[in-house]
Design goal:
By secondary structure, the chain is largely without helices or strands. It contains four helices and eight strands, in the order αβββββββαβαα.
């Protein structure tokens, strides 16, 4: 039987030397791009970190002992070979950011719904054919990436999350393009709207507004071209641009 890659052995000394102080003063353990094939148990002695980066390795499994990292606010596991997540992931109550992009996930544990403080969740580039309606319990969620999966629908409980502002569902096999566009553009927000009467505008402003209105009318009268799906840079596949600096992928 062929053996898989042995991978790099991470010692406690290596792990300690990989701790950095993040921009907000927290402790960040960065073990990304180190050829790790199994979860390094030695880091269970460093559970006081606020951020853990195990991205761009060859991990196939995250153990239940991840629950020992109770201070974690930021967990990056993108670009590994994970096929499932442990139920213990739901115990990380302080988690703000969770990146699971570019793995081999086919299902999600129902315990994800327990992450009440989660704001950003990236599930893009996996093998998911459905999203559990229970994710509707993530009331603080503002951004979710679901692109490049096998989804045919998005649960209403997810689309109607009260604080959701960005949702990337590109390149999923939705029944038709109309449904895809509806799902991709289901989150619409008007940040500021000012209404004034024409008499309150100066001549210059009135002329500018009329010009913009004329341009809009011309566009509306032209045969529409295929709509371009919205692009959300924070929810794109992390390794698509080969960014070496992980700080560029952090959501600030």
């Amino acid at each position: 039987k062929a053996k898989g890659p042995k991978g790099k052995r991470i010692t406690l000394k290596i792990a300690k030397n990989s701790i950095r102080v993040s921009f907000d003063g927290g402790l960040r353990l960065d073990l990304s791009k180190m050829g790790i094939t199994t979860f390094p148990n030695c880091i269970l002695k460093l559970t006081d970190v606020d951020e853990l980066d195990l991205s761009r390795n060859m991990l196939k499994k995250i153990p239940s002992s991840i629950e020992k990292f109770q201070k974690l606010r930021w967990l990056d596991l993108h670009s590994n070979q994970l096929e499932e997540l442990p139920k213990a992931i739901g115990t990380l109550q302080n988690l703000f950011y969770l990146n699971l992009c570019n793995n081999k996930l086919t299902t999600l544990p129902k315990e994800l719904k327990l992450l009440k403080n989660l704001h950003i969740l990236n599930l893009g580039l996996n093998c998911l054919d459905s999203i559990p309606t229970s994710l509707g319990a993530l009331q603080e969620l503002t951004e979710i990436g679901l692109f490049d999966n096998a989804l045919t629908t998005i649960p209403n409980s997810v689309k109607t999350l009260p604080k959701l502002k960005k949702m990337n569902v590109e390149r999923n096999p939705f029944p038709d393009s109309a449904n895809q566009e509806e799902d991709a553009d289901s989150i619409k927000r008007i940040e500021t709207l000012y209404l004034v009467q024409e008499k309150d505008l100066c001549h210059s402003c009135l002329k500018t507004c009329q010009g913009e209105k004329d341009k809009l009318n011309k566009v509306m009268n032209v045969t529409p071209s295929p709509s371009k799906q919205p692009s959300f840079p924070l929810l794109l596949t992390p390794n698509s641009s080969a960014k070496d600096n992980q700080e560029e992928w952090r959501v600030r």
